[in-house]
Amino acid sequence: MIVAESLTKRYGAKTAVDDVSFEVHPGRVTGFLGPNGAGKSTTMRMILGLDRPSAGRVTVDGRAYRDLSAPMVQVGALIDAKALHGGRTARDHLVVLAKSNGIPLTRVDEVLDIVGLTSVAKKRSGGFSLGMGQRLGIAGALLGDPRVLLFDEPVNGLDPEGILWIRNLMKRLAGEGRTVFVSSHLMSEMALTADHLLVIGRGRILADTGVAQFIAENSVSHVKVRSPQADRLAELAAAAGWQVSRDPAGALLVQEVTTDQVGDLAGHNGVFLHELAKVEASLEEAFMRLTADSVEYHTGGTPPKTAAEAVPGWGPPTVADRIG
Amino acid sequence: MTTTAPAAPTALAPGARLTFGRILDSEWAKIKTVRSTVWTLLALFVVSVLISWGIAALAASDVAKDVAEGKKNDAPDLLTVGVAFGQIAALVLGVMSMTAEYSTGMIRTSLTAVPWRASMLAAKALVLALVLFVVGAITGFCCYFLANLMLDAKDVGIALGDPGVIRSLIGTGLYLAVLGLFGMALGVLLRHTAGAITLGIALIFVVGGVVGLIPGKTGDWIAKLMPANAGSQVMSVEAADKMFRPWPGFAVFAAETLILLLLGTLLLEKRDA
């Protein structure tokens, strides 16, 4: 279990992680989700004792990382695919790590097999693709058969087969009762992998909740209606107490109703309909809504138009302004 | 978290944990599994031996003439003269042992596997010093044998048993070991290969010579205390004028290096990796 208490990291005037508290429990995959620059990697580095918190503390199974006596057996970490010496072979890289923690060298060949790098074990890692580098990093994380696993953006650079493999690996590790903490900036990836979500934006925790609950709470589905008598229909819907807005093309967007209800209302009042559809907000939209809201809430002043503007480095400016 | 966790993973190996011996073993595996170590040590050996041999061959006649005329016998200074050039390789190996961790990104993995940073640095230092001492002493003896072959041909050879000779050859290993540590300390302080190598070479080749120009007693003392000036006396059969005696000089160099290493340890513990 990982416990962060009021964890804060400042770089000069910039606060990368701002008074963050959370717990990561064993037996499930906890997704650490946030746009680039939200503080995910900084938080992970503090968990691993690489960066010193400016304030607060973080422990793994009750102890600060730097006080662990068998770090690789207690925690396995994939920091990034480039955290290795390219001049060393894959096997030698793992041997160096195994020796420091007294892990038997037979385990090196086991993990090479698990990640599928046995055939290139004697090759220098400098020539590896990003995906192979990730696999080698994962092999290093698994070396000590640890109870707690941290993966920072593990799917980066992996091909579809590799992505499927890492998803299943993380689920299996969690199923074995281990603590699995995985960061990503891809909501869709987290929806497929994680059981629990920790959402971070601008260094603050925005949500700490189950994946299903997160979707239910944060996504809003609505009914889209096109009608030649849109104004009349809008009046009727408002009279029924529904919340109505219009998209740029002039279609009505009715919140928290079913298509049946809208169709019945139109039929009873003789209004023609050209289109009637239920629009489900995706997880991606839910996430953008959340980060956009948080930015508005924290910065005040003029609310940013889209999540993409509000959060630097975040995805395409699409649905957020239509919904929000 | 004790009773409810399903199928708690079994401990891989009950004895798996950090010890200083294991960290040492790991650092030994690190230094021997990169090709640059072999190339650097080979450069150290080849450059030192070839230059010592070449200069002895060229200078032997002049030395014989000087001795015949009753002038000062320069032969002892020629035995390991090539190490003055080969030493750059020892400095580079020391610097790289630390800066390569930073330039490759390996430092993050290293410190995750071994979060006891001071222990890791100490292990790294021990391995480096041992490797350089052994290779340095072998280099010293090879320099002696080849150079002395040339001097013997003109009857100005120096016997291995002559006073100070064995000490100077073992001293070559000692000096190069501490020079490597000196480079390693610069590497941990600057965390940048080119910067640390430049500073190291400047301190050894440039500043060490230039401070000799400062007049008076102050200048003499500053020149004496410069790292390479102090440390290299242990490599010479007879200590140079105005310099420390061999062992005190080496002690000064070792102390200066130790101070830099301790400073480096403090910074390594304190700084974000």
From TrEMBL, chain A:
Gene Ontology MF: a single term: ATP hydrolysis activity
Keywords: ATP-binding, Nucleotide-binding, Transport
Region spans: Disordered: 300-324
One matching Pfam family: ABC_tran
Full protein name: ABC transporter ATP-binding protein
Assigned protein family: Belongs to the ABC transporter superfamily.
InterPro entries from the UniProt entry: AAA+_ATPase, ABC_transporter-like_ATP-bd, P-loop_NTPase
Organism: Embleya hyalina
Residue span(s) of domain ABC transporter: 2-227
PROSITE patterns: ABC_TRANSPORTER_2
TrEMBL record, chain B:
Superkingdom as given in the UniProt entry: Bacteria
Pfam families: ABC2_membrane_4 (PF12730)
Tagged with keyword Ribonucleoprotein: no
Bilayer-spanning residue ranges: 38-59, 79-100, 121-147, 167-190, 197-216, 247-268
Keyword Transmembrane helix: yes
Keywords (A to Z) from UniProt: Membrane, Transmembrane, Transmembrane helix
Coiled-coil ranges per UniProt: none
UniProt-recorded name of the protein: ABC transporter permease
